[in-house]
Design goal:
Helix content is about 35%, strand content about 15%. It is of the alpha/beta class. The chain has a six-stranded parallel β-sheet, with helices on both faces. It has a two-stranded parallel ribbon with strand order 6-9.
Length: about 325
């Protein structure tokens, strides 16, 4: 009898989806921990042929189309669904809430409904933006969400759909401040700014704090939680916290630039101000992993160094 597990990936062309696909194929994602060092991490090397993967994205599967989602799931009949597809343009969500909720909440309802109908386990990727940021301590999985932005509310809507349809069996993975080798992200933005203006000052806010997370590590955690059918909510970030100012300083230093070029400002000094409110504190305590006896992801500084090493100087 074949032991191959069929896995459906949504958002498969995004920065996280690309790394999820690599992990499922048994490859080390770009900027990932070398295979020789994977022992004791969230996922040991995957043997080729362990997973048969159907990767989808907006061009091949519109999550808003219930019939299309049901047809795709029924046709492939996955054992596992890794649902990372989302409308993630945080500021654009503020001006287009219908699209945000159509994709992030209703689209998740369609995926969860189709998965539940065939008994497939689902892992839904959510966000630190489900919290308002008023807490002084890192948020644990059992803290009550209270999002302030449309993006955060729509992603919380997706969480509610998972719990309503999948019940106790579904998995929600909240993560934060995500960067990777593929797609647009803060690391690439900083490298581009640094290269484009070698002597210029970079100003970043020092009153928003979170846990930087890197897709090469996050992808392994998501696949492990899905393959283990771990139910419930997990906060999954790289270890350690910082402000955006501190993060950008570390990016500059890792790339060999002068970190003193980075200057702190307050969120209230941003010009123009951002349409979507950001939580001042979105630090996530990975209590679910810790209390389950699962190893933590590497320190964010280590993961950043790995990523910078594989990116071009101007990203």
């Amino acid at each position: 009898m074949s032991t191959t597990q069929r896995v459906l990936v949504t958002g498969g062309n995004g920065q996280l989806g690309r790394d999820v696909r690599d992990v499922l194929a048994g490859a080390v994602p770009s900027g990932g921990v070398p295979e020789s060092e994977l022992e004791g991490t969230l996922l040991p090397p995957v043997a080729p042929g362990t997973f048969e993967v159907l990767s989808t994205d907006i061009d091949t599967l519109d999550l808003v189309d219930r019939t299309a989602v049901c047809d795709a799931v029924n046709g492939f009949r996955p054992h596992l669904v890794l649902h990372g597809g989302a409308f993630t343009a945080v500021d654009a969500c503020e001006s287009d809430p219908d699209t945000a909720f159509a994709v992030n909440a209703m689209g998740t309802r369609h995926v969860a409904e189709a998965a539940a109908a065939i008994g497939s386990h689902i892992v839904y990727v959510s966000t630190d933006y489900v919290f308002d940021g008023d807490a002084t301590d890192p948020y644990v999985e059992w803290d009550p969400p209270s999002p302030r932005s449309v993006y955060g509310r729509s992603k919380l809507g997706g969480e509610q759909e998972i719990r309503s349809i999948s019940g106790a069996s579904g998995t929600v993975v909240r993560t934060a401040w995500v960067s990777g080798a593929h797609g647009a992200n803060m690391v690439k933005t900083v490298l581009r700014l640094a290269a484009g203006s070698p002597d210029g000052v970079l100003r970043f806010v020092d009153d928003q704090h979170g846990c930087p997370t890197f897709t090469a590590d996050l992808a392994r955690a998501i696949v492990r939680l899905g393959a283990d059918r771990r139910p419930g909510t997990f906060h999954v970030t790289n270890q350690g916290a910082t402000s955006w100012f501190g993060f950008v300083q570390e990016v500059m230093a890792a790339a060999g630039h002068d970190a003193s070029r980075v200057k702190p400002i307050a969120t209230s000094d941003l010009d123009p101000p951002r349409p979507a409110p950001r939580p001042a504190n979105s630090r996530l305590d990975n209590a679910g992993l810790r209390l389950s006896g699962l190893p933590p992801m590497p320190a964010w500084q280590d993961a950043l160094a790995r990523l910078v090493a594989v990116l071009p100087a101007s990203a």
